[in-house]
Design brief:
Blueprint lengths: L3 H8 L5 H7 L1 H17 L3 H8 L3 H9 L6 H11 L15
């Protein structure tokens, strides 16, 4: 299995990659936070799915970013992993 950091190195050689990557940065941030929270909780995807009354495949989709989770799903996820959900808006660099 190829590691994402290795793919990132390869893809970085494409001149369009940084712009495309930047456009998806917020989604990557959410995916990484979801995966980190689950690991921090010590739960497997299967255990977490059981707590959320869903399937392991739904948890895999959530962590992989295949789909946009609703705030309701994120709240359920936070509760199931022993976390608190915080959403904030940060001003863009160079803009008011």
């Amino acid at each position: 299995m190829t590691k994402i950091k290795d793919l990132h190195k390869i893809w970085s050689k494409d001149p369009d990659y940084p712009k495309d990557y930047q456009a998806l940065e917020e989604e990557f941030t959410v995916m990484a936070a979801i995966a980190k929270a689950r690991r921090r909780s010590g739960l497997s995807q299967t255990e977490l799915a059981r707590r959320m009354n869903t399937t392991q495949s739904a948890m895999a989709r959530l962590e992989s970013g295949r789909g946009q989770p609703s705030t309701r799903t994120l709240v359920r996820f936070a509760k199931a992993t022993g976390h608190t959900l915080k959403i904030s808006f940060q001003p863009e660099k160079g803009k008011r």
